[in-house]
TrEMBL record, chain A:
PANTHER family: PEPTIDOGLYCAN D,D-TRANSPEPTIDASE, PEPTIDOGLYCAN D,D-TRANSPEPTIDASE FTSI. This is Peptidoglycan D,D-transpeptidase FtsI. It catalyses: Preferential cleavage: (Ac)2-L-Lys-D-Ala-|-D-Ala. Also transpeptidation of peptidyl-alanyl moieties that are N-acyl substituents of D-alanine. The gene is ftsI. Belongs to the transpeptidase family. FtsI subfamily. InterPro entries: Beta-lactam/transpept, Beta-lactam/transpept-like, FtsI_transpept, PBP_dimer, PBP_dimer_sf, PCN-bd_Tpept. It comes from Parachitinimonas caeni. Residues 558-577 are annotated as: Disordered. The chain crosses the membrane at residues 18-38. It is a single-pass membrane protein. Gene3D superfamilies: 3.30.450.330, DD-peptidase/beta-lactamase superfamily, Penicillin-binding protein 2a (Domain 2).
UniProtKB/TrEMBL annotation, chain B:
It comes from the Bacteria. It comes from Parachitinimonas caeni. The chain crosses the membrane at residues 54-74, 86-104, 116-139, 151-170, 176-192, 199-216, 285-305, 317-340, 352-375. It is found in: Cell inner membrane; Cell membrane. Keywords: Cell cycle, Cell division, Cell inner membrane, Cell membrane, Cell shape, Cell wall biogenesis/degradation, Glycosyltransferase, Membrane, Peptidoglycan synthesis, Transferase, Transmembrane, Transmembrane helix. It is an enzyme of class 2 (transferase). The gene is ftsW. It is a multi-pass membrane protein. This is Probable peptidoglycan glycosyltransferase FtsW. Pathway: Cell wall biogenesis; peptidoglycan biosynthesis. It catalyses: [GlcNAc-(1->4)-Mur2Ac(oyl-L-Ala-gamma-D-Glu-L-Lys-D-Ala-D-Ala)](n)-di-trans,octa-cis-undecaprenyl diphosphate + beta-D-GlcNAc-(1->4)-Mur2Ac(oyl-L-Ala-gamma-D-Glu-L-Lys-D-Ala-D-Ala)-di-trans,octa-cis-undecaprenyl diphosphate = [GlcNAc-(1->4)-Mur2Ac(oyl-L-Ala-gamma-D-Glu-L-Lys-D-Ala-D-Ala)](n+1)-di-trans,octa-cis-undecaprenyl diphosphate + di-trans,octa-cis-undecaprenyl diphosphate + H(+). Peptidoglycan polymerase that is essential for cell division. HAMAP family: PGT_FtsW_proteobact.
């Protein structure tokens, strides 16, 4: 072996090399420790934030929306738990075609829509299907596809459907009130959503709660003044009348005469709040509160009451209405049938425009205005409903005599059906008017006196007379109860002039001896031949009142053979306006 | 009298092996076992391949550890003389295995890399064994070529060719991590073996210049490489893994979120139980855990070099270079792995020695440590006047 190849002789491992190498490695180890100090001691806040952005979530816990019930506790709007299926595309791996097909089938969502929803992988929340029934949702989850979750939500269900649609309104898919009481009582019904602050793993499953769970506060139950049975009856009769008369629209309001509670309110056309896709906005209007019409002859009792209260008239004061018309300046007021001398009572009974005009013209403008104002015309009824109309009552200073005359029989003045129903309370309650309410009252709200009890009683007598032979509203009569009311038939205004379209209405109360109910019916544009309030609207009143009084268990105030029919040869009295 | 003092100096009786080193290794293995379990539970539970068994990785890791400890103990029994004798053959076997991996239908491909040979129940990763064989071979080569350590042609070039072949095989898999470690072992062993430091320096400079030139010559490579420096530019794309690793460090703060409480391991951080185990240690055990592991690895490296220098003093040059080669291996690999986890080095695909999940890696590590302890044992035997 040559000298140079003998390793043991040549190789002298130099220790500086080992120390240098070891030193370099140890320096690198130290550098790593330094880096760890930097990351874990100084950059930790930034890093934690970054981390939280990825797995920290706030989960909303839906509050159960309060139930709406009628005055007897029957549910009118209830929330049932449903499941919404959502996905987090950013956490999902691309699905196989077979998985997609299964998912599409389980969700009953078209494949293209599903693919599109899952395509945006930047998003971490997308609804795949809202509000499924819990069984169907469970079948979706059983596919065990990572990144797909369910969320409990509540779906609003309206058992009364179209019967109650305008009162209750409805909520949107996020459970926010959109119409009706669902909208106005939102804060009471909605409750307060709770939340969970959680950390989720990559597949979206909750790992832990970071802070305590904030429990949702459920909404309160709203008990309405509505009586479901009366409401059903009122809707059914209104619908029948609107359909039979080929009318464009209609409305009915049933008030508790003693408390001002709304027992029923219905409009035609209505809608089903449970399936309201493609809903015509016209159907959603709560016409009884939002729309005005000229009340026609249903105004006359107020004219008579104002006249009697003024002291210038008594119920038996005679007014000459011959020859059935009356000229005021360039205008003329007509009666449908000419009458001669009529008492104030008879003016109401036969609905004489001339008689009403003469009474109105004998009163000060200001006095008459104040009277109309005091029964609520021109101001919204404050029922707590959205979009209430105040109606139209022009300031007295601008009244011309002809206007003062026409207003006495309900033209040149506009009201909502709710306003006129409420105003009739002064006759029903011996002179007091109360606020109306949709909420069930524990005790009646204090009333405000408008007319004396004697006047109110006198008017009740006149209203009863109007439903008896010789009156315009014989069809309002019912078995077992005495009723009173006033018909109204007004021409509609179209482009500033009256045309041959009508609004037929009837406002009445029963039992007349001690009124319990006030019912106001309005049929808009009846087109099937009949258009007088006595023929179109009064029958609705009688059906609804008869049924309602029985349901409420109100003792009859008349024998069962009480219906008075006219002599066969006496012509039926009809009013124009 | 003199013998009396020598007898005194020997007390307390010197152990037959480096107790502190053994403890460091055992502690690292224990930390590894616990953390692999902790880091893998969530992933194993949702993985079809594991049969949704949460303890899948724990049981396998424990089994690997048992086998690898036996293998290490067996390696400890084999005299260094024999390792030196068979080093070239082992190196050839390693090369053959690396070729076999690339043969279609023989090598198993995972995540786009062909690194594994399927052996019925387990997969063998030849590149892990190759690291050990390179330690043995480079030491043998350096000792044999001791006379040419001043010559580029005769001293460096043959090794360079061998490394070029090995490197090509590793790049074909590809396994950049193993290539980096093997290059470090080979170059380090040459340097430690006395290769002319001026030539060595020149080579290093050339390497660096070439590397930098390569990077700057292509915008793609440049972007790819510096991508790791700014994971927050594209945290949901290229920077995804690294940004999650860094978040894990940040969440851990000084003392960690607690064992088992990591969020990153919940499928956010890929490879949490293998390449990015350190991030989970950092999150659950905090800086304290990180520092412990780093210090243990530093200690391990230190002991390997100390044993090597002791062997050199005893003029056992092959043993010295093997011991230091093991030190370079474990030191460099742990530094790279931890550096990758901390975002100071580009992602390589290297495991953390002794800790990360992976049978071949732990097996190779423990065999190497068995040999290191054998070197130490032989040193002690010689110092006591025995022969080996």
């Amino acid at each position: 072996m040559a000298y140079t190849t003998n390793a043991n002789l040549v190789l002298r491992l130099q220790f500086w090399r080992a120390w240098l190498t070891l030193g370099a490695l140890l320096v690198l180890f130290l550098a790593l420790i330094g880096r760890a100090v930097y990351l874990q001691g100084y950059q930790k806040d930034f890093l934690r934030e970054q981390g939280e952005a990825r797995y920290y979530r706030v989960i909303k816990l839906e509050a159960n929306r309060g139930t709406i019930t009628d005055r007897n506790g029957n549910p009118l709007a209830i929330s049932t738990p449903v499941q919404s299926i959502w996905a987090s595309p950013s956490d999902m791996e691309p699905l196989h075609a077979s998985q997609l097909a299964l998912l599409s089938k389980a969700l009953s969502v078209p494949l293209e829509e599903l693919t599109r929803k899952l395509a945006d992988t930047k998003r971490d929340f997308v609804y795949l299907k809202r509000q499924m029934n819990p069984d169907a949702a469970q079948r979706v989850l059983e596919l065990r596809i990572p990144g797909i979750f369910k969320q409990t939500e509540y779906r609003r269900y309206y058992p009364a459907g179209e019967h109650m649609a305008h009162v209750i309104g409805y909520t949107d898919i996020d459970n926010k009130g959109q119409e009706g009481l669902e909208l106005t009582r939102e804060s009471m019904l909605a409750g307060k959503a709770g939340s969970r602050h959680v950390i989720r793993d990559r597949h979206g499953y909750i790992v832990e709660d970071v802070t305590g769970v904030e429990q949702p506060k459920d909404g309160q139950t709203l008990t309405l003044s509505i009586d479901q049975n009366i409401q059903y009856l009122a809707y059914r009769e209104l619908k029948k009348a609107v359909e039979e008369n080929g009318a464009k629209a209609g409305g009915i309001v049933v008030l508790d005469a003693k408390t001002g509670e709304v027992l029923a309110l219905a409009n035609m056309p209505s809608y089903n709040p449970n399936t309201r896709a493609k809903l015509d906005p016209a159907r959603k209007r709560n016409r009884a509160l939002t729309d005005v019409y000229e009340p026609g002859s249903t105004m006359k009792p107020f004219t008579a009451a104002a006249a009697i209260e003024s002291g210038k008239f008594t119920p038996l004061t005679v007014i000459n209405t011959a020859p059935g018309s009356m000229t005021i300046g360039p205008n003329t007021v007509h009666d449908a049938h000419p009458h001669g001398a009529l008492t104030v009572e008879q003016v109401i009974q036969v609905s004489s425009n001339v008689g009403a005009s003469k009474m109105a013209l004998s009163l000060e403008r200001e006095y008459l205005w104040e009277f109309f104002d005091s029964v609520g015309f021109g101001t919204p009824p404050h029922s707590g409903f959205p979009g209430e109309t105040p109606g139209r009552l022009r300031p007295w200073k601008s009244w011309r005599p002809i206007e003062q005359a026409t207003m006495s029989y309900g033209h040149g003045i506009s009201v909502s059906l709710m306003q006129i129903a409420r105003a009739y309370m002064i006759f029903a309650t011996d002179g007091e008017i109360r606020p109306i309410t949709f909420q069930k009252l524990v005790a009646p709200q204090p009333g405000r006196r408008v007319i004396s009890a004697e006047t109110a009683q006198a008017l009740r007598k006149m209203l009863e007379m109007a439903t008896q032979p010789g009156g315009t509203a014989r069809k309002a009569q019912i078995v077992g109860y005495r009723v009173g009311g006033k018909t109204g038939t007004s021409h509609k205004l179209d482009g500033g002039s009256y045309v041959n379209k009508y609004v037929s209405s009837f406002v009445g109360m029963a039992p007349i001896s001690d009124p319990r109910l006030i019912v106001a019916v309005m049929i808009d544009e009846p087109s099937a031949g009949k258009h007088f309030g006595g023929a179109v609207a009064a029958p609705v009143f009688s059906q609804v009142v008869a049924g309602s009084l029985r349901m409420l268990g109100v003792p009859p105030d008349a024998p069962t053979q009480n219906i008075l029919l006219p002599e066969p040869d006496v012509p039926e009295i009809k009013e124009e306006t | 009298m003199k013998m009396f003092y020598q007898a005194l100096r020997r007390r307390p009786a010197m152990a037959g092996y480096d107790l502190a080193l053994v403890w460091a290794v055992l502690i690292l293995l224990a930390i590894g076992l616990i953390m692999v379990y902790s880091a893998s539970i969530a992933a194993a539970e949702v993985d079809r391949d594991t049969g949704f068994r949460y303890s899948y990785f724990l049981t396998r890791h424990a089994a690997f550890l048992a086998v690898a400890l036996l293998a290490g103990f067996a390696a400890f029994q084999i005299p260094i003389r024999l390792w030196q004798q068979y080093a070239p053959y082992l190196f050839l076997i390693g090369t053959a295995l690396l070729i076999l991996v690339l043969v279609p239908h023989v090598g198993r491909e995972v995540n786009g890399s062909k690194r594994w040979l399927s052996l019925l129940v387990v997969n063998l990763q030849p590149s892990e064994l190759m690291k050990f064989f390179v330690v043995l071979y480079a030491a043998d080569y350096t000792v044999r070529k001791a006379a040419y350590m001043h010559s580029l042609l005769k001293g460096f070039f043959p090794m360079f060719l061998v490394m070029l072949l090995t490197g090509a095989l590793l790049l074909a898999e590809p396994d950049f991590g193993a290539l980096a470690v093997i290059t470090a072992i080979a170059m380090g062993t040459l340097f430690l073996g006395g290769f002319d430091w001026r030539l060595f320096g020149g080579l290093i400079i050339m390497l660096v210049v070439g590397f930098v030139g390569l990077i700057y010559s292509s915008e793609y490579r440049y972007k790819r490489l510096i991508g790791f420096m700014n994971p927050w530019d594209d945290p949901y794309g290229k920077g995804y893994q690294l940004s999650h690793s860094l978040i894990a460090f940040g969440r851990g703060k000084w003392f960690g979120v607690g064992l088992g409480a990591s969020v990153e391991k919940l499928s956010y951080l890929p490879e949490a139980h293998t390449d990015f185990l350190m991030a989970i240690i950092a999150e659950e055990l905090g800086f304290a855990g990180v520092a412990t592991v780093v210090v243990l690895f530093g200690w391990l490296t230190w002991r390997a070099f100390a044993i090597g220098m002791q062997a050199a003093k005893l003029e056992r040059y092959y043993a010295a270079l093997v011991a230091q080669g093991v030190g370079i291996w474990l030191g460099v690999q742990s530094i790279i792995n931890i550096g990758v986890n901390m975002g100071v080095l580009p992602t390589k695909g290297l495991t953390l020695p002794l800790l990360s999940f992976g049978g071949s890696g732990i097996m190779a590590n423990l065999i190497a440590l068995g040999v290191l302890l054998r070197v130490d044992w032989e040193n002690r035997q010689l110092m006591r006047g025995y022969t080996v």
